[in-house]
Design a protein that fits this description.
mainly alpha, Ferritin, binds MU-OXO-diiron
Length: 172
């Protein structure tokens, strides 16, 4: 039986994953409306991934006889200064989620909850990979520059990175 404190903490994480999904959806729309299809495809896929992260927690809560709470989601930001800004905010969001997962693991240690600790290890790897991808994109943007002539090349780089992720996931 899941400790009530852990049930609450997992529901808080479930809400964060749901917010991340909506936030990436808003970013996808911003890019889509600027005809940056590589970037919009990256964020549409990322929105689906975050939804899957939320669903994994929901399924785990049910498996452990806990009560999932379907959260109401605050409206995500929908306007951004630039493509660098959008990926910089993505990085900040992912770092926050990583910290939150690490805090949850600390809580499992206090509660001696090995099952939840084991369940959360998947998220530790996932966060490490997500942060690495966004850092790589930020590096590419800095390398290419951000002038109007550069946006096309940034979009192509992100498209290639996204295709690589899709292909790796298909093989897994
Ligand atoms: Fe599921 Fe990237 O946070």
């Amino acid at each position: 039986m899941l400790d009530k404190k852990m049930e609450l903490a997992l529901n808080n994480q479930l809400e964060k994953e749901a917010f991340s999904s909506y936030s990436y959806l808003a970013m996808a729309v911003w890019c889509d409306q600027k005809s940056m299809e590589g970037c919009s495809q990256f964020f549409y896929r990322q929105a689906e991934e975050e939804h899957m992260h939320m669903m994994k927690i929901l399924a785990y809560l049910i498996e452990r006889n806990g009560q999932p709470i379907i959260p109401s989601i605050k409206k995500p930001k929908s306007d951004y200064k630039s493509i660098y800004d959008i990926f910089n905010q993505t990085f900040a969001q992912e770092k926050e989620v990583t910290q939150s997962i690490h805090d949850l693991i600390n809580e499992t240690q206090k509660l001696n909850d090995h099952s939840t600790q084991n369940f959360l290890q998947w998220y530790v790897s996932e966060q490490r990979e997500e942060e690495a991808v966004v850092m790589k994109i930020l590096d590419k943007i800095q390398l290419i520059g951000e002038g109007p002539m550069c946006l096309y090349y940034i979009d192509k780089e992100v498209e290639a990175i996204n295709k690589q992720i899709v292909s790796t996931e298909a093989k897994a």
